[in-house]
Specification:
The chain has three helices and no strands. The protein has 135 residues and is mainly α.
């Protein structure tokens, strides 16, 4: 940006304060744009991961149904009662599903986006602009 003040003249205090205010507003706006971009990127990544996880879960559930059916049929020589074979398989899959759900829930909690520094920087920029406007 070119210097709006002639090189031989000393800028007035009012002009300097105006320039500083404009620069602070520009910096704050840039910080907010950066945070907006980072948030958008993080949300898109999380949505993409969630869709992939949901698709994988549907396919896994179909496979799990076939495995359960095969296990129930395979246990027929050992346990003649169909209801008992179904009950055993249901208990096994509820247990395994509960463990898997807890592990993935913990992973989702720990893998959240790291936006603390960006949000803090934007908050400081906004506070600086507000503080500058008050004085």
């Amino acid at each position: 940006m070119a210097n709006p003040h002639p090189p031989d003249a000393r800028p007035k205090i009012g002009d300097l304060l105006h320039d500083i205010g404009r620069d602070v507003r520009t910096i704050a706006g840039d910080e907010l744009q950066l945070v907006r971009h980072e948030l958008t990127t993080a949300v898109h990544k999380m949505l993409f991961d969630a869709v992939g996880t949901a698709l994988g879960a549907v396919v896994a559930l179909i496979g799990l149904g076939f495995l359960c059916t095969a296990a129930v049929a395979g246990l027929a020589p050992v346990l003649p009662a169909l209801w008992l074979r179904l009950l055993i398989m249901a208990a096994v899959y509820v247990f395994l599903g509960g463990i898997a759900a807890m592990r993935f829930a913990d992973k989702l909690k720990s893998d959240g986006p790291e936006l603390g520094a960006s949000v803090t920087g934007a908050r400081r920029a906004v506070e600086a602009v507000e503080h500058g406007l008050e004085h």
